[in-house]
Amino acid sequence: MDFQKTADIVVIGGGVVGAATAYYLAKSGRKNVVLVEKNTVCSGSTGRCGAGIRAQWGLELNCRMALACLDTFEQLDEELGLPTGLNQGGYLLIAYKEKEWEQFKKNVELQHSLGINTEIFTDVKRAQEICPGVAVDDALGFTYYHRDGHADPFLTTFAFQEAAKRLGVKFCKFTEVTGLRVERGEIKAVETNRGTIECGDVINCAGSWAQDVAAMAGIKLPNWAERHEIFITEPVDPGVCPPMLMSFSGNFYIQQRPHGSIIAGESPSHEPVTGYTATVHSIASIARTVLKLLPRAKNIRVVRQWAGHYDMTPDAAPILGETDVKHFWHATGFSGHGFMLGPVAGQIMTALLNGDTPIIDPTIMDYRRFERGERIIEPNVV
Ligand SMILES: Cc1cc2nc3c(=O)[nH]c(=O)nc-3n(C[C@H](O)[C@H](O)[C@H](O)COP(=O)(O)OP(=O)(O)OC[C@H]3O[C@@H](n4cnc5c(N)ncnc54)[C@H](O)[C@@H]3O)c2cc1C
Question: H or E element: which one contains 292?
Answer without folding.
Answer: helix 280-293
